[in-house]
């Protein structure tokens, strides 16, 4: 938590585009958002946002080049929240296949990201989602539209949960294929759409996530 009482959210700076709009949206949603490569801050911040624009393989390689996957893994092992956005969501899966090229993701979730089977690609513009009733991210904004721009997505959720582990909250949308628009899985959440480009609804979604963060002192 910052000196003024706002939760500190680190926005991972690893060379991805579109990071400044994410920082501004997080600030508007009530966070002390800091674009950073500082490993200590990435680990210690109340929340971590992993943005992503471009090709699956390039984003995954850039994250591994800065050993960011290790930081993400260490945060999650300690129950520290992480939010992936767009390709920052896709690379959390086991692998991606883009233009015939198969690439390894960060393997936080099983499954493969593949091209949507749709008459028009990319899927660009505002669309609705199907959020579960107990969603934290979509609380109060279940019927809003969000801004998508992508040609690839995860179309299945193969992860089985047993015992006392909480069941993941899965949000879906459709463009040709039905695909995962968002996942809330313990401390790891992600959206396929861009909340920072989704107007008031996107700000409210980020505020919902920020409001769920456990607070620490920085």
Task: Characterise this structure.
The protein is of the alpha/beta class and 218 residues long. It is built from six helices and 13 strands. Strands 2-1-3-4-13-12-11 form a seven-stranded mixed beta sheet, sandwiched between helices. Strands 6-5-7-10 form a four-stranded mixed beta sheet, covered by helices on one side. The chain has a two-stranded antiparallel ribbon with strand order 8-9. The longest helix has 13 residues, at 199-211. It is globular. The chain starts with 7 loop residues before the first strand and ends in a 7-residue tail after the last helix.
Number of helices in the DSSP assignment: 6
Percent of sequence in beta strands: 25-35%
What order do the helices and strands follow? EHEHEHHEHEEEEEEEEEH
Spans of at least 5 consecutive residues with low confidence = none
Topology:
Elements: E1 8-12, H1 19-28, E2 32-36, H2 39-44, E3 47-50, H3 56-65, H4 68-77, E4 82-85, H5 87-90, E5 93-98, E6 101-104, E7 109-115, E8 123-127, E9 146-150, E10 152-154, E11 169-175, E12 177-185, E13 188-191, H6 199-211
Parallel strand pairs: 1-2, 1-3, 3-4, 4-13, 5-7
Antiparallel strand pairs: 5-6, 7-10, 8-9, 11-12, 12-13
């Amino acid at each position: 938590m910052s000196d003024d009482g706002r939760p500190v959210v680190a926005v991972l700076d690893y060379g991805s585009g579109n990071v400044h709009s994410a920082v501004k949206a997080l600030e508007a949603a009530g966070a002390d958002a800091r674009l950073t490569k500082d490993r200590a801050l990435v680990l210690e911040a109340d929340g971590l946002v992993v943005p992503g624009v471009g090709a699956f393989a390039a984003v995954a390689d850039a994250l591994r080049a800065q050993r960011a996957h290790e930081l993400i893994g260490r945060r999650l092992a300690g129950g520290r929240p992480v939010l992936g956005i767009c390709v920052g969501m896709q690379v959390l899966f086991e692998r991606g296949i883009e233009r015939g090229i198969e690439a390894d993701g960060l393997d936080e979730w099983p499954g493969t990201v593949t091209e949507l089977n749709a008459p028009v690609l990319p899927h660009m513009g505002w669309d609705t989602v199907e959020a579960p009733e107990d969603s934290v991210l979509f609380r109060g904004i279940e019927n809003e539209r969000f801004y998508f721009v992508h040609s690839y997505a995860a179309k299945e959720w193969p992860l089985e949960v047993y015992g006392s582990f909480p069941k993941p909250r899965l949000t879906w949308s459709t463009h040709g294929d039905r695909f995962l628009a968002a996942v809330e899985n313990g401390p790891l959440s992600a959206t396929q759409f861009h909340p920072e480009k989704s107007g008031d609804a996107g700000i409210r979604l980020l505020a919902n996530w920020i409001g769920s963060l456990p607070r620490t002192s920085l």
